[in-house]
Write a structure and sequence with these properties.
mainly beta; four-stranded antiparallel β-sheet; 10 strands; 0% helix; flat
Length: 153
């Protein structure tokens, strides 16, 4: 099949009025195969967008771009401290397998809500293996640079 091994060669944001590229997303597009098309979630004021791409959970990412003059540039997303991890007894000897973050919605023009998925593999006392998943809701405020996270129930 042709789509199985296909990947994005060029991904750009094009300004409709001029037809000019105002952001090059190529290096941030990790999608392949049938999942090679990324998704864009625009902020209400169109000054930022979250770009979600990837196929397998271990190769998925969200990148945020913000307007810088007439073009868009990548916005830094520093790691956020995930609550409850230090005291989570189930994770003490578990192996971290993968994680991914997906954009959910813009709460306002400067505030993005994301869902963070964390997956682990642990062993029971009898040696059997079990999967462990944790999901967090992260809120990022691009005006003050702060991020908060809470465990998603």
């Amino acid at each position: 099949r042709v789509t199985e091994n296909s990947k994005v060669v060029k991904a750009e944001l094009i300004e409709k009025a001029t037809g000019k590229a105002i952001a090059d997303l190529t290096k941030d597009d990790v999608g392949t195969g049938a999942h090679r098309e990324g998704k864009v979630l625009w902020s209400p004021d169109s000054k930022r967008f979250a770009y979600f791409s990837g196929a397998l959970a271990s190769k998925v990412q969200t990148v945020v771009y913000q307007k810088n003059g007439r073009k868009f540039a990548r916005a830094d997303l520093p790691k956020v401290e995930l609550p409850g991890r230090a005291g989570d007894a189930e994770l003490v000897r578990a192996q971290h397998l993968w994680e991914f973050v997906e954009p959910q919605r813009w709460v306002g023009p400067d505030v993005l809500e994301l869902r963070h998925h964390d997956y682990f593999e642990g062993k029971h006392a009898d040696g059997s293996i079990h999967s462990i998943g944790r999901t967090y809701l992260i809120t990022r405020d691009f005006m003050n640079g702060k991020a908060t996270a809470k465990v998603r129930e």
